[in-house]
Design a protein that fits this description.
The structure is a homodimer. Chain A has about 425 residues and is an alpha+beta fold. Chain A is about 30% helix and about 25% strand. In chain A, helix 2 packs parallel to helix 3 and helix 7 crosses helix 9. The relative contact order of chain A is 0.14. At the A-B interface, helix 2, helix 8, helix 9, strand 13 and helix 11 of A face helix 2, helix 8, helix 9, strand 12 and helix 11 of B. Chains A, B: Pathway: Amino-acid biosynthesis; L-arginine biosynthesis; N(2)-acetyl-L-ornithine from L-glutamate: step 1/4; Amino-acid biosynthesis; L-arginine biosynthesis; L-ornithine and N-acetyl-L-glutamate from L-glutamate and N(2)-acetyl-L-ornithine (cyclic): step 1/1. Chains A, B: Its EC number is 2.3.1.35, 2.3.1.1.
Chain lengths: ~425, ~425
C-alpha cells in the first residue's frame, strides 16, 4: 500500500448500508505478511444469483479459471478474496490451491464447492498456501456481519491509496432495491502489484442469466472504458450477486434482462459500475490528473472506442498531461496510429471547451492561455471529432508521472 | 537536443566513405531556431532509383503524402529534410509548403518536382514557412560534397543524443558495392519531439521496383521490430536510393529482387537496416537499458511478433527493467494480454540464460542471484517460449525511466 493518498481520491465517502442477504468478515491469514488483513469472506445465507466478467488475458489466474467453471451453476453462497498472492502462473499447484480453498469455504459456510467464488491478488508465480484459509474461514463465517463494506474494501487493497465503495438504490415493482459495490485496483493492471477486482451485490431478486446480461452490458462503458497503463491483469474479476431478499417486500422475481421493470435498476447499476471504475482510474499508480476522452464522428461506436483508447494509452499523451502541456499534436498522433479511419482535414480537437484544432489545422482562434488553464485542472476533458460518422465513445485514464515509474520500477530497490 | 548522451550510444563510429553518385550539404534556414543547422539536401547528380516505406498513421504528414505520390515515378534527384517543423496537421498550408519546397529544390538541382523527396521533423500543427528553403537550396547544391555522412546525420537530429550512421559493403558481379545510411529518432515516436527518419543510399545499379521489394522485406525485422513507447509518428520515413554508379565498374543492372546475384547485397542491406534501427532504440528517450525480446514456439511468426511487441510495449515490463527487476510475472501478463494463443502451462521464460519459469510455474532451479546479475546488464535478452508451434520473432525496446517522463512531460515547464 502506498503511503500518500492520491490527490484524486474522493473528498467524502458514502454511508454504506447493510444489504439484506450478505454478510462479510475479514481476517489475517498470513498469506504474505504477518498480522495484515488479507482475506475477505462474503457469505450469502441463502443461495444468491451470480454473474461475472473476467480478464481477457490468455494466461488467466487459477481463481479466474475456477470462477468461470462455477458460473454456469448460477448459485453463489460464498466469495473468498485474498491479497498477498495472485495464485497466477502457478500451474497444477494453482488448481490444487483453488480446490482446497473452495473446500475450506464450503465446509465453513455449509454449501457446495461449486457455490464458492474466488479471487486472488498479489504476487504472481508463487504457490499459494491455501491451508492457511482452513484455519480462519470457520471463524469468519461465524463473525460475518452486514454493515462491513468499508472494511471489506480495505481488506482487498494492494497498491490502492484509498478504499473504493459505492451504493445506489432503485425501484422494482415499487420496492426499494439497494446495490452496493467495492472495488480495488490502481493500474489496469499488472501482476505482482495490482489487479482490478470488484464485487457488487444487490438485494433484488433477479435470476442469474438476466444478471449476467445486465453485467455484460454494464461493463462496456464502465470498467472496460478505463485504462491506467494498457496493461491487463491475469486476475481482473468483476462479479455481481443478487441475494433476492427484496422478494420479502413484494418484488416479484425478474426472469429476463429485457424486463421493462428493470429500467430504473439498470440505470442505478450502470451508474454504480461507472462510479467504481472511475475510482480505480483516480487511484491510478502515480496519477495526479484524470482525463476524460470523448471521441465523436467515428464510423461506429466501436471505432470511436478504439481511437479513444489509442489516445488514452499513449505514453506521450499521458506524459504531456502530466506536464500540463496541451499537446494536441500527440492527440493527432494517437488518432493516426489507432488504425481506424481518420481524415486529417476533418479532425477537430478540444481541451475542455477550447477548440485547439479544426479542419486539419491549428484553430486560428485558439488561446494558449485558456488552454493552459484547462491543463492545470485536476480533471481534464479531451474531445476529438473525426467528422466521418455518428460513432461515439468516452474513456477515462490518468496521467503518466515519474511516480508511476517509481512505483513500478523502484520498489525492489 | 538532449544535453547528455545516452549510455547506450555506440562506443565508436565507423568511417563513413563517400558513395559515388550522391552529394550532401546542410544549412541553417531558420525554420524554428536562428543559426541552427536545420536543413539537409541530398543530391543525386544522375537519376537514382528510389524506394520508400512510411508511417502507417492515418494522419500522415504532408511530406509523407508528397513522397508517396512521387514514388511511382521511380526516380530521385534530390532529398530535402528539415528539422524544427514536421509540416504535419497543417492542412492545405501543408500541401502548399511541400509544393513550394519541391519547386525550390527542383530549381536548385535542375530536375523535375516529381524527382524530389521530402521529410520534415519537429513541431506539429505549425505552418512550415517553405520560402525559407528557396534562399538556401541553390547554395547547398553548389557546395554539396560526398564525404558528409556524419554531418548529415547530425543535421536531422531532434531529441537524439547521438548521430546515427552505418555503412556496409557487398559484392554484386564481383564488384564491391557500398551501402551507407543515416537515421534519426529517439522514440517510436511522437510529433513535437521526435520522428523516425532514415535515408540509405547504395551505389549499386538496381531498378526501383526491385529496390522497393528489398526495402519492404528488410524493414520487417529491423525498423518494424523496434519500439520505444508504442507511439507512431505521423512522419516516419525510411528511404533507399540506388545511384547505379557501380555500373561503371561492370555491375550489370539488377532488374528483379529475386535475382540470385543480390544475396550478398540483401545480407548487407538487412544488416545495415538492423544496425540503424537498433541505434534508434538505444537512443530511446530516457533509455538506460536495451531489451531484446525473442518469442518462440508461437503458432506463426506473425503471432510471435504480436506477443513480442505486447511485451516490448508494456509500461510495467519496461519500468521493471528500469528497476533491474526480473519481474517475469509482468512478462506473463503481457503474453496474456496480447490476444494471441498462449497456454499458461506450456510457457517458459528466460532472462539471459536463466530460465525463470517453465511449465506454467516458477522454475524450481531459478536463481535470484543469477537473474539479478542479468538485470544489471546494459543489454538484457528476454526469451519466451510459448510451446505451441514454430513461429518466432525478435523485437527490441528500451526501459521506461523517470527521464522519459521528464523529457516528454517537463519540457514545457
Amino acid at each position: 500500500m502506498s503511503s500518500s493518498v492520491s490527490p484524486l481520491a474522493p473528498k467524502s465517502y458514502p454511508d454504506m448500508p447493510a444489504l439484506r442477504g450478505v454478510r462479510m468478515a475479514t481476517a489475517a491469514a498470513g498469506i504474505k505478511y504477518k498480522n495484515r488483513t488479507d482475506v475477505l469472506l462474503m457469505v450469502f445465507d441463502k443461495p444468491a444469483a451470480v454473474a461475472g466478467v473476467f480478464t481477457r488475458s490468455k494466461c488467466p489466474s487459477a481463481p479466474v479459471d475456477f470462477c468461470r467453471a462455477n458460473l454456469p451453476h448460477g448459485v453463489a453462497r460464498a466469495v473468498v478474496v485474498n491479497s498477498g498472492n495472485a495464485n497466477a502462473f502457478t500451474g497444477v499447484k494453482g488448481r490444487s490451491a483453488t480446490a482446497l480453498t473452495a473446500k475450506s469455504a464450503a465446509e465453513a459456510v455449509g454449501c457446495s464447492e461449486n457455490e464458492v467464488y474466488l479471487a486472488s491478488t498479489g504476487v504472481i508465480g508463487e504457490p499459494l498456501d491455501a491451508t492457511k484459509f482452513a484455519g480462519v474461514l470457520g471463524n469468519m463465517h461465524a463473525q460475518a456481519i452486514g454493515a462491513f463494506w468499508p472494511e471489506a474494501a480495505k481488506a482487498i487493497m494492494t497498491t490502492d491509496t484509498y478504499p473504493k465503495v459505492g451504493t445506489r438504490t432503485a425501484q422494482i415493482d415499487g420496492v426499494t432495491i439497494t446495490i452496493n459495490g467495492i472495488a480495488k485496483g490502481a493500474g489496469m493492471i499488472a501482476p505482482d502489484m495490482a489487479t482490478m477486482l470488484s464485487f457488487v451485490v444487490t438485494d433484488a431478486d433477479i435470476v442469474s442469466p438476466a444478471l449476467q446480461s445486465l453485467l455484460a452490458a454494464g461493463v462496456g462503458p464502465s470498467f472496460n472504458s478505463v485504462t491506467v497503463d494498457s496493461d491487463t491483469s491475469t486476475s481482473d474479476t468483476l462479479m455481481l450477486f443478487a441475494t433476492g431478499a427484496a422478494a420479502h417486500d413484494g418484488q416479484s422475481r425478474i426472469e429476463a434482462a429485457d424486463d421493462p421493470r428493470l429500467e430504473d435498476f439498470k440505470t442505478a447499476l450502470n451508474d454504480l459500475l461507472k462510479d467504481l471504475a472511475l475510482q480505480v482510474v483516480r487511484d491510478g499508480e502515480g496519477a495526479r490528473k484524470m482525463v476524460e476522452i470523448t471521441v465523436s464522428g467515428a464510423e461506429s461506436d466501436a471505432a470511436a472506442k478504439v481511437v479513444a483508447l489509442s489516445i488514452a494509452n499513449s505514453p506521450l499523451v499521458k506524459t504531456a498531461v502530466a506536464g500540463e502541456d496541451a499537446n494536441w499534436g500527440r492527440i493527432v498522433m494517437a488518432v493516426g496510429k489507432s488504425g481506424e479511419m481518420a481524415d486529417r482535414d476533418r479532425l477537430a480537437i478540444w481541451f475542455g471547451n477550447v477548440r485547439v484544432a479544426v479542419n486539419g489545422e491549428r484553430d486560428p482562434d485558439y488561446s494558449e492561455a485558456q488552454t493552459s488553464a484547462v491543463m492545470k485542472q485536476e480533471d481534464i476533458p479531451v474531445k476529438v471529432d473525426l467528422g466521418l460518422g455518428e460513432g461515439t465513445a468516452t474513456v477515462w485514464t490518468c496521467d503518466l508521472t515519474k511516480e508511476y515509474v517509481a512505483i513500478n520500477g523502484d520498489y525492489r530497490s
